[in-house]
Amino acid sequence: MPRSIAAFAGVVGLLGAGLTLTPSAARADGSTLYVNNLSTSNCSDSAAGAGSQAQPYCSLQTAVDAAQPGDTVMVVRGIFGPLDVKTSGTASAPITITTGTSKALIQIITPQSGSGPALTLDHVHDVAVHGFFIGTNVRAPVVAVEGSSEVTLDGDRVGGAYSGALVSIDGQSNALTLSRDDIDTQPGEDGVDIAPGASGTVITGSEFSYGRNAPVNAAGAPGTVVVGNTFTNDGGCNTAIALTGTSSGSTIENNAFFLGTSGGCATYGTSTPVVVSSGSTSGTTYDYNVFESESDDALYNWGGQTYATAADLQTATGQGKHELYVAVALDRTSLNITPLIDSADADAPHELSTDFDGKPRVDDPRVADTGTGAGYYDRGATEYQDPYQLAPAVSVSKGPAPLSETITADETNPWKTRITGYTFTFGDGSDPVVSATPSVTHGYAAIGSYPVTVTATTAAGASVAGSKKAYVNVAAVAPLVPALSLSQAYPYSSLTVRADATRTTDDWSIADYSVDYGDGTPAADLGTSGVGGHTYAKPGTCTATLTVKDDGGNTATSTQQVTVGSAFVPFGPTRILDTRNGTGAAKAKAGPGAVLRLKVAGVKGVPATGVTAVTLNLTGVNASTSTVITVYPDGTTRPTASNLNLVPGQATPNLVTVPVPADGYVDLYNHSGSVDLVGDVEGYYSTTAAVTVGGTGFVQESGPTRVLDTRNGTGTVKGKAGPGGLVTLTLPAGGAGNASAVLLNVTETNATASSWVGLEPSSGNVPTSSVLNFTAGQTSANLVVAPVSNGQVQFYNRYGSVDLIADLEGYVVSNVATSPSALGSPYFPISPTRVLDTRNGTGAAQGTLGAKSKISVKVAGVSGVPAGVKALLVNLTGVKPTTNTWLSAYADGSALPGSSTLNLAAGATRANLALVPVGSDGSIDIYNNSGSVNVVADIEGYYIG
Question: 643: helix, coil or strand?
């Protein structure tokens, strides 16, 4: 389907509603006929005054048909259909059809419903067309020149929809000039096709953008002149200028070729940028061109022979003595213009005295004149101008009223252009000031914001306006009040903070912000932006100090405490330990008193560095006797705390979060008998993983809140999970629903068979690891890190049928945009530390916890846990209750939640890890529902912030 020129979609409607038009016999304003077809223009094609400024023509065709030699058809506004020019001027009195501008905003278009060229020069002479966009939405030449001579297209932009050729010149035409035109071809289009027999075509000062067809194709067209043009090709393998047949006596000079890579050549055929056939070499001049290319393909085909370089061409033909070639890097972001400057042949035929944009030729004093004639013309379509620039700069951008301001012209003047004066305007209604120096002083009395401008006058009399405005803000008197905000920087490690002091208030503009981040590193200068960043060397809490200096000479400081720690990376579940088959350790049970060293860092996708703690679902299997398992950092003293309590005949899991030391190992100690150990990584904490990348984020405590119960249909369909069945949990909208992972206390009950529950993988296969193991009739729970996909979590049950309950204890948000108010807190791992044991009076009075009773445990400021702690990872153990019961852990001072943390059978000892919020008094509460039970609590880490 042909490409549509979308910018002109309204053309059909404008043209289709027209009437049959009759040219007016009247002539208005002598030699200028005006055209404007906007609805507000009062246009007419038949009124006595048609063609005047007061009543312009509606139809461009009507105006052109009415034109006589020497007339100017001035098109003011509008969009016009195809134009067929049949009226000629004379050599001394040409007809000019113009927009009066070089912006090419007024359009001559063939719509999709039409046919034929947009512009036809039909057997005419001495006609010029200037300043239009000319295009088609049909398969036809955009401009057709038929039997015409002494015709000029100047300052036009030409584009089509796979037109074959944008400009087509037939063999009966001669002396056509294309100057300062923008010719933009698409793949499959030639730019200018010159038919055999046409002569004296001039293409000068124009820009061509092309793909795989020739921008200039002269086939048997003698006397063709291609001078001072720029050709830009993104393909890098196609001909730009082709003189074929007998196109003798031609000239190719001062052109610039910017060539891309040679991709696409295999598809479209390799061709040199310049082709001059053997029938076209006679009397043809080729010189002063420049190539900038990303490829090293051959540049010339002259007389049927290919020449790779200008030196080869010169040696063989004598042509190209002043050729230049510049190799450029792939994927260049800018062109090297230096070789183009002041190096052209100013005496080349039809070389223009002004460039593509109508700018004059100028001499760059920094570059030696190597061209001929005037010596300082630039190659290509653009004459690079004096780069002199200026902009106003103010001494202070803000200050209290009344304010005395010094305003200076900030100049860039590599040519050392002599400036004779500067004109300043102040934006407050006062008169402009002309100064011989680039600096003036001005007083502002009233509060407000004032734009300031500056214009320079050169010794040559040219006026150069400033490239931008400056603003002076005059404020009411107010004190300097610094304000510092420190937050996690995204997407960087959890130890990186973003400093923002932009909420500082003052009646003066700020001269400088600096921040001492409080970790012993030098203060960081934030300049006047007030924004910066800093990466701490290690986790901890520091007090940062902001120092602000303003342009009034005032200084003030403020402080902000910041805590940086580890971020959580959801991972797996991935099995890294199974003593039953030798995964991660020897294939053998752990015996009494045995310590198993388990490599964690650098194993199965867990990074080798930056890991501060690992979250491991640890399962004890085939215990020969009752025992406890303790997990702790390798190389440290084994703590008195335990993580897993086991009895013979049961597979018992518990989630463990343990610090990972520098060697990347953790130790697992078995107290009694022998037991198989299985470990699945569900995540890890890191100080180097980029927050927001790959699900990495901070844990936000949230509960506990019940989000799943198959017994009543909470969060899913009501009903047990059958053998091989799935339970899909839809999380509540908001924070958890937008999370990358959730921390769920998953409880099973009413199981009909011994089974296990795993997290359903995306492949739909049977999970390779479990998160909860249980026997028939047992009620048990385990904390689970569950990845979230589209706001859902899926559980898989292996055998029998079972009810599943899940209480949300926390979640990891890595998407700042979706949950900006729930970004969580950094984590600080510690070796398991016992803060409560009612058996011996640790942390509370000695003695069991009775039914419907709670105990409060002080945790903040205890055993290395700092004040201000927000939440804890607590391994909660119930020891030998007198009856079946459950325990719940929650923040002191809050209501008892409607969910359990640990389920216990009479006489059993069992542990479960919990994420527990800390009350404002630094304590947590533990509640027992039935009977009496001893309670033990071990802290594995804490969250601050």
Answer: coil
User: What pLDDT score was predicted for residue 761?
Assistant: 59
Give the bridge partners for 127, in sequence order: 95, 151
Sign of CA dihedral 602, 606, 607, 610: negative
Do residues 488 and 691 make contact, with C-beta atoms less than 8 angstroms apart? yes
Residue 155: exposure state from Cβ atoms within 10 A (0-12, 13-18, ≥19): buried
Q: For 230-287, how does the pLDDT look when each residue is reduced to its tens digit (9 = 90+)?
A: 999 876 667 899 999 999 999 999 999 988 776 655 555 668 899 999 999 999 999 9
The three-class DSSP label of residue 777 is coil
Give the model confidence (pLDDT) of 724-781 as tens digits. 999 999 998 877 878 888 999 999 999 999 999 998 755 567 888 889 999 998 899 9
Inter-residue contact 826 to 777 (CB < 8 Å): no
Please state, in angstroms and rounded to a whole number, the distance separating the CA atoms of residues 245 and 272.
Answer: 17
> Which candidate, 534, 822, 785, places its Cα nearest to that of 698?
822
pLDDT of 333 strictly over 60:
no
- Strand-pairing partners, residue 297, are none
Residue 806, class by beta-carbon neighbours within 10 Å (0-12 exposed, 13-18 middle, 19+ buried)? buried
| CA–CA dist 80, 38 (Å, integer) | 11
**Which residues, listed in sequence order, are joined to residue 653 by a DSSP beta bridge?**
619
Taking a C-beta distance cutoff of 8 angstroms, is the pair 926, 849 a contact? yes
Task: Specify burial of residue 852 (Cβ count, 10 A radius: 0-12, 13-18, 19+).
Answer: exposed
Q: Are 670 and 591 in contact (CB under 8 A)?
A: yes
With tokens 């502002």, the residue in question is 444
Task: State the Cα–Cα distance between residues 397 and 509, nearest whole angstrom.
Answer: 6
CB 37 within 8 A of CB 80: yes
Length of the chain: 945
Measure the CA–CA gap between 656 and 643, rounded to whole angstroms: 7
Helix (H/G/I), strand (E/B), else coil: 63: helix
Q: Look at the block and give the residue holding tokens 């198993």.
A: 596
Helical ranges in 710-861 per DSSP H: none
Q: How far apart are CA 411 and CA 20, in angstroms?
A: 59
Residue showing tokens 């999709």:
112
Q: C-alpha angle with apex 509: 504 to 510, nearest 5 degrees?
A: 60
CA distances from 794 to 320, 615, 731, 754, 780 (A): 74, 20, 11, 20, 19
* Coil, helix or strand at residue 188: coil
pLDDT of residue 818: 57
DSSP 845-871: -SS-B-TTEEEEEE-TTSTTPPTTEEE
The number of angstroms, rounded, from the C-alpha of 776 to the middle of its chain's C-alpha atoms is: 55
Nearest 10 degrees: Cα torsion 626, 631, 634, 636: -90
- Edge to edge, what strands does the sheet with 934-944 contain? 827-837, 934-944, 869-879, 909-917
Helix residue ranges per DSSP H, 10-82: 11-16, 60-66
